[in-house]
Amino acid sequence: MISPQEIVSIGRITRLHGKKGELQCLLSNDLLYDAAPSFVVLCPDGLLVPFRLSEWRDKGAESVLLSLQGVSSEEQAVRLVGSEVFLLRRDCVPAGGANDDTKMLVWQDLAGYRLLDAQGEDMGRIVSVDETTANTLCKTDKDMLFPLHEDLIQRLDTDKKELVLGLSGSALQ
User: Fold this and answer.
1) Are 131 and 68 in a shared domain?
2) Are residues 80 and 150 in the same domain?
3) What is the pLDDT of residues 92-126, one digit of tens each?
4) Would you say the C-alpha torsion 82, 15, 37, 70 has a positive or negative sign?
5) Does the pTM of the predicted model rise above 0.85?
């Protein structure tokens, strides 16, 4: 059984492509391009189900077409439309490259981290991360929203579970 800790979201199945079971996936990040996946994990009906990836190819700037083993007709594929698509973490390349022993982090991994501004002011604990729009946002337990972008991160301490953003709390009010 696949646990949520073993996977990372890469997008969502938006529609069928053709009549042979090919699926269009709208990507939420670029992890697929650096990965060497044998499988993708879909979440139809709230269940994590692995599918062997036969092939994938680009379709535009933000989408790819997926061919899954065992899905070869419109009838089989239509049940998967709307499903979130995941990769197994073991298939993803860590942030520093393939030989880096550090744990690969994605935005969703920041849930539970303490968020601090540039002056060390506690902005709350991150309770969720929203990547559904072009601007990734995190929500804190103080019911505040903050932008997440690599350029805004001053420090990330995975041992202390702290994220310091180059934002001033007073500038946000």
Assistant:
1) no
2) no
3) 765 444 444 445 677 878 889 999 988 888 999 99
4) positive
5) no
